[in-house]
Design goal:
The structure is a homodimer. Chain A is of the alpha/beta class. Chain A has helices at about 10-20, 50-60, 65-75, 80-85, 115-120, 120-145, 160-175, 185-190, 200-205, 210-220, 230-250, 265-275, 290-300, 310-315, 395-410, 415, 430-440; strands at about 30-35, 45, 90-95, 100, 105-115, 150-155, 180, 225, 255-260, 285, 305-310, 325-330, 335, 350-355, 365-370, 380, 380-385, 390, 425. In chain A, about 40% of the residues lie in helices and about 20% in strands. Chains A, B: Catalyzes the first step in the biosynthesis of NAD from nicotinic acid, the ATP-dependent synthesis of beta-nicotinate D-ribonucleotide from nicotinate and 5-phospho-D-ribose 1-phosphate. Chains A, B: Pathway: Cofactor biosynthesis; NAD(+) biosynthesis; nicotinate D-ribonucleotide from nicotinate: step 1/1.
């Protein structure tokens, strides 16, 4: 499978592995994954993707045909390729549990493994962790913007490929969405699936009323009718007349869906039309170009909309489709390591993040410290794998979703309102001392 | 496989299929895929993804275990599910060849098939065509921004999942990139693969010179050394001293890579250091936060950079990660259909796009016309599938890449410079007459 192949990696990972092998460099390495700086439109991020990463690491191996192809490519020495067949991930992973809220520079995951293993997994590790973290972080904003409203992922079609569509459903559910339209996400993750109808269904019929009736008979239990194909209010009137007739047959119109125009204005008029016909029970569901800003305005304005289908802006995280994340070597063979590139210098050593809470339960601030440093607060990085196997009790998707819900309640108010603001993140004295010692030890004249 | 499952779809597609089946609606439908309006930062788009779509349509079918799972889910009637086993795609596809440049409202693909087939494929069809079109359109801008420079896709890690990473390599190569770092894209698509080294490789060694030498011995043919881990110019001096020694062993340093700081300034200083040491043959390769705007400035400023590795901005199309595209029913059972939703009304009927060129060979303008309408100009939609099978002679990736290269030379100058501007796109009189006839025929009082 595409998503499990170890050839889904950057060429340089294999090139480095060959060099490590040639020089017997198989000491223990610690790499950490972190986001350097949050996008301007994000006050917090939410960790996600660990479950898929652990699944990948537990089963990863080079297939015989992959090694055969590498051999035929002539890009690597035969001796090096011989060694790949036995390569497995045997290391440890510590990570923030999925659904944890985090901030810039904080390690969200640490891999401790023999250098070649920790190196090889870099590309796919970032690919898996980055994407779901991007989506969970975006979805969490929508959850905060529309409290108590049903939010459904409609975004498979414009997600970036198959895996993105499937995992966006997972990440958004984890962050608090109610359901997805993606059938496979229901099968693979148990996420509630829901769906309405497309304009093409209406258009394929000669009139809207017939289309509604026909659809009703195949969806008698969870029936949502799309009413904006020609004229939203006229269609609402059709639904108002049709609903009692269907009810007599035991078919209940659950909701109508609006997908275009001024959603608040249409929702008010449609609500009035339905209520005047005694159809107070029919809910109004809206979709079309929604993002957390639009959701927030609709909710604040009191638009009578009960649920939202969110597509493109969710599954592409349209305003921030990528994070400035990195997976960096922090320790090798017992010695801390530090990259000093301009604007991209890293904090060395194996680290932990400690979180402190205010009296009202909201996050007061975090401290990034060395893993061995004594600190108050909740340690956010928790064991996820030991010696290549997942630890017992890794959270289920439902547990991660509960963790995410709790995490959102503990955000400072300004972040819950999606306003600008930042939680203070401090660097411990232990890290600062380590950096000072490393700078002192650096040989300024080491050019040979 | 995830990317071939027909369960990777929206629930409503299956719900509509059940309703179509219940009412014997299997007439011929024509759907068209188009982008309503270009993103503000795009003057043109480039069609891509057809090859993957055709592959999907040729082989698509419900697996027995998928039907079994649908049955167990209780979401559909058993009779309907029985019919799914035999479902295949038997229709026609006409499409702009991959690499074709196009503009807003133009159909880039038309499916003509029995309604259930044309409906079912909607979600994955958009998912496949949208993504590669997004990426090819972004990559084409980079190709125009850095003419004659080597451009390499470095973006797998931050692409949205496995398929996005793999297909971004394909779409960017199609648009004119030289290579990718993704090993699997080399295997699956024959795209040249290239790679350098990561900072972690340098950091894992006690000094840079040792790291360079060790890497050199495993990459004697295409050796690029990363020089910004600690101090770019100091590392360039190390390379300048090391290169003659390696050359004596038959190992040639092909390039150095810069990945941080002011790339133009570093490139000038590094060029001077290398040239002063007689190493004029070592090329300079740059990466880190590049997009077409940065590329354009570096090239215009004459920065001595020979090639670029582009990651995140390419594989997420960061400034425009999604297009406002739609797949809409334009004709069913011989009758044109039209969606009239506010701001989302469609042009009805089966259409064709005709392109006219100025005397200098650049695009003068397009006309969107009915498929049967007589028009001057090049007809852009070409047969891709007939009766469920691909037509003979569908372009290879290399042919599509050549088509893209030609298309970029035929863009008006302002678009080649990535400036604002638009190619005129007209709607034919035939379409306008059809809309008028449909509006006239519409029953204003059809509420039952």
């Amino acid at each position: 499978m595409l998503e499990q192949s170890l050839l889904l990696t950057d060429l340089y990972e294999l090139a480095m592995l060959e060099a490590y092998a040639a020089h017997g460099m198989a000491g223990t390495a610690s790499f950490e994954l972190f986001v350097r700086k949050l996008p301007p439109t994000r006050g917090f991020l939410m960790a996600a993707g660990l479950e898929q990463l652990v699944g990948f690491l537990e089963t990863m191996r080079f297939m015989d045909e992959e090694i055969g192809w590498l051999r035929a490519s002539g890009m690597f020495s035969p001796g090096f390729l011989d060694g790949l067949a036995a390569l497995r991930f045997t290391g440890d992973v510590d990570a923030m549990p999925e659904g944890t809220v985090f901030f810039g520079d904080e390690p969200i995951l640490r891999v401790t493994a023999p250098l070649p293993e920790a190196q090889l997994i870099e590309t796919r590790l970032i690919n898996l962790m980055h994407f779901q973290t991007v989506i969970a972080s975006k979805a969490a904003r929508m959850v905060l913007a529309a409290p108590g409203r049903q939010l459904v992922d409609f975004g498979l079609r414009r997600a970036h490929g198959a895996e993105a569509g499937l995992l966006a459903a997972r990440a958004s559910y984890l962050a608090g969405f109610s359901a997805t339209a993606t059938v496979l996400a229901h099968r693979d993750f148990g996420i509630p699936v829901s769906g309405t109808m497309a304009h093409s269904f209406i258009q394929a019929h000669d009139d809207e009323a017939t289309a509604f009736e026909r659809f009703a008979r195949v969806r008698p239990k969870a029936l949502t009718l799309l009413i904006d194909t020609y004229d939203t209010e006229r269609a609402a009137a059709i639904v108002a007349r049709l609903a009692p007739r269907l009810a007599a047959e035991g078919i209940h119109v659950t909701a109508v869906r609006l997908d275009s125009g001024d959603l608040a204005a249409h929702a008010r008029r449609v609500r009035a039309i339905l209520d005047a016909a005694g159809q107070n029970g029919i809910r109004i569901f809206a979709s079309g170009g929604l993002d957390e800003g639009v959701l927030q305005r609709l909710v604040i304005d009191g638009a009578p909309i009960d649920g939202f289908g969110v597509g493109t802006s969710l599954t592409t995280s349209a305003d921030a489709p990528a994070l400035d994340c990195a997976y960096k070597l922090q320790e090798y063979a017992g010695r801390p390591r530090r990259k000093k590139s301009e604007g991209k210098a890293t904090w060395p050593g194996r680290k932990q993040v400690y979180r402190r809470y205010a009296a009202d339960g909201t996050i007061a601030g975090d401290v990034i410290a060395l893993a061995g440093e004594l600190m108050d607060g909740e340690a956010l990085l928790q064991p996820a794998m030991r010696a290549g196997r997942r630890v017992a009790g890794l959270p289920t998707l439902e547990q991660a979703r509960a963790c995410a819900a709790t995490a959102l309640t503990r955000l400072p108010d300004v972040l819950r309102r999606l306003g600008p603001g930042a939680v203070p993140v401090a660097i411990s004295q232990g890290i600062r001392d380590l950096v000072a010692r490393m700078d002192l030890a650096a040989q300024p004249d080491s050019v040979p």
